[in-house]
Amino acid sequence: MTSSTVKAPAKSAYWEGLRDGSPFILMVVPFATVFGVVATDAGLSVAQAMGFSVLVIAGASQFAAVQMMLENAGIAFVLLAALAVNLRMAMYSAALVPYLGPAPLWKRALVAYLNFDQSYILSVTRYEARPEMSVTDRAAYFFGVASAIAPLWCAMTLVGIFAGSAIPESWALDFIVPIMFLAMVSPMLKSSAHVAAAAVSIIVALALVGLPSGIGLLIAAGAAMVTGALVETWIERRKA
After folding, report:
1. pTM
2. Per-residue pLDDT reduced to its tens digit, 14-59
3. Domain boundaries, the chain
4. CA angle 169, 45, 71 (to 5 degrees)
């Protein structure tokens, strides 16, 4: 068996991942562009705004952080808000271990860097549908999905940054942040626990709107996570 024969399945898996991830371009282009615009409006430099997209690659947490910057929150609160929104990535990582745990360290490190909603969801769905896939093929598929999204996210952020510098301040684009954030969060409300958590977060955030530096948002996030966990536990007990 030649080396080219061995590498063929992995190459095929990569292109399948690239194909499956391509439809998300329709979402990535406007979201990343708007992030670049709003990041500029929040006072970030080109390097700072690009650092967000290159290092984080997570729209929800990026928009949450910029929203708090627009509210003049302290850096500690900005970081806490971004981390709170991105806690799901830890669960994604744990769920990928049975499929990609045996992969070489450099591949696992790259998976950790490129682990975001689309790459995780599409990959796990494929792994469950095709349990016969080798670890090499699984990693190749994951990288294929990420290749369709991550570079474009960074590139369109840069486009938004330069577009934002040309937009007059009188246009007041601050309102775009909460709208875009709602557009990203609303499709995630797929269960009673999600809806309850969202409702509690809204109520608590509005009740604590007078607190300084975004403290109310952090408290609302914590209350939402507790509510979601409690509702999920209650539902599981009822089923049992």
Report:
1. 0.70
2. 999 999 999 888 888 888 888 898 888 788 889 999 998 998 888 7
3. 8-186, 189-240
4. 60
